[in-house]
């Protein structure tokens, strides 16, 4: 089985639940505390490609910085990507990556499907 990677925020209950699921299933995984070790633009772009979504679909729209930057009205996906790199709190979490596949761990069943 290939190693898993989880982009993790320990303050997030969904992220903690995903981490616990990986531990409970004795998965081989690496934790990236993405608020401190933020992926660069190229890395984040690659993760988004693995997820099969657009950058705007990875945004946490409830964050204050989302409103402050008026990202609701931003349609340039490249600028949205730049905003997520500059403000990693905007990145939806948790993200679990296995090989050439990635999922957002909301709901947790997404992670369960990935680790089958």
Features of this protein?
116 residues; globular; 39% helix; Glutaredoxin; 4-stranded mixed β-sheet
List the helices and strands and how they pair.
Blueprint: E1 4-7, H1 13-24, E2 29-32, H2 41-51, H3 64-68, H4 77-86, E3 95-98, E4 101-104, H5 109-115
Parallel strand pairs: 1-2
Antiparallel strand pairs: 1-3, 3-4
Keywords: Oxidoreductase
Family: Belongs to the ArsC family.
Organism: Candidatus Marinarcus aquaticus
What value does the Rg take, in angstroms?
14 Å
The H-and-E topology, N to C, reads as: EHEHHHEEH
Reported by name, the CATH topology of one domain is Glutaredoxin
CATH class of one domain: Alpha Beta
Q: How is the biggest beta sheet arranged?
A: 4 strands, mixed
Q: Which residue ranges are poorly predicted, with pLDDT under 50 across at least 5 consecutive positions?
A: none
Mean pLDDT: 96
Classify the secondary structure makeup into a structural class: alpha+beta
> With helices defined by DSSP (H or I, 4 residues minimum), what is the helix count?
5
Which percent range describes the beta-strand content? 5-15%
Pfam family, one: ArsC
Protein name: Arsenate reductase (Glutaredoxin)
Organism: Candidatus Marinarcus aquaticus
InterPro entries: Arsenate_reductase, Arsenate_reductase-like, Thioredoxin-like_sf
């Amino acid at each position: 089985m290939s190693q898993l990677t989880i982009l993790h925020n320990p303050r997030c209950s969904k992220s903690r639940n995903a981490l616990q699921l990986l531990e409970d299933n004795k998965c081989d995984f690496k934790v990236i505390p993405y608020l401190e070790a933020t992926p660069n633009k190229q890395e984040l772009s690659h993760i988004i490609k693995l997820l099969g979504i657009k950058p705007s679909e990875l945004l946490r729209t409830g964050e204050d910085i989302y409103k402050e930057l008026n990202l609701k009205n931003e349609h340039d996906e490249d600028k949205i990507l730049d905003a997520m790199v500059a403000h990693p709190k905007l990145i939806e979490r948790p993200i679990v990556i296995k090989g050439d596949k990635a999922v957002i761990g909301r709901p947790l069943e997404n992670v369960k499907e990935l680790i089958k």
